[in-house]
Amino acid sequence: MYETFEHRADVGIRGYGKTMEEAFENGAKAMFSVMADIDEVKPIDREDVSCNAPDTDMLFVEWLNSLLSLSHLTGKLFCNFKVKIGDNRMTGSAWGERLDSERHHVMTEVKAATYSMLKVSREDDVYVAQCIVDV
User: Fold this and answer.
1) What is the mean pLDDT of each run of 10 residues along the chain (135 residues)?
2) How many Cβ atoms sit within 10 Å of the Cβ of residue 90?
3) Deepest in the core among 32, 36, 88, 102, taking most CB within 10 A?
């Protein structure tokens, strides 16, 4: 459960979940869906990520930017994610594969997750994690 939304020259992303972890996972899917058709990406390789921040809002941005750095360093697109969050620290994993320009439909480069419209909250029984990504 994720979505993207228009925001001037950039793109907003929003992940939903029954838990905060699931919202972070779906937020990552939203970000990578801006970059490519993630339905075409196979979850072949696993990469581990850990980060911390002063609060859960900033932790969401750190998570996304860590994934972007990892994607750029390894040349991989990611499609599946799993995180554990506790005490403003998270550990997670991302599954994907190396970019294959003949098979993957690459769309827009995401440069960074930003603090613009950043929000991690619980709305009734659904967690929401959102921010604007710089494209």
Assistant:
1) 78 97 98 96 97 97 98 97 96 97 91 96 96 95
2) 23
3) 32
Q: Residue 96 belongs to what H/E stretch?
A: strand 89-98
Q: What Rg value do the Cα atoms of the chain yield, rounded?
A: 14
Contact residues for 67 (Cβ-Cβ < 8 A; gap 6+): 28, 31, 32, 49, 78, 81, 94
CB 61 within 8 A of CB 41: no
- Overall number of domains in the chain: 1
pTM check: above 0.90? yes
CATH number at residue 53: 3.55.10.10
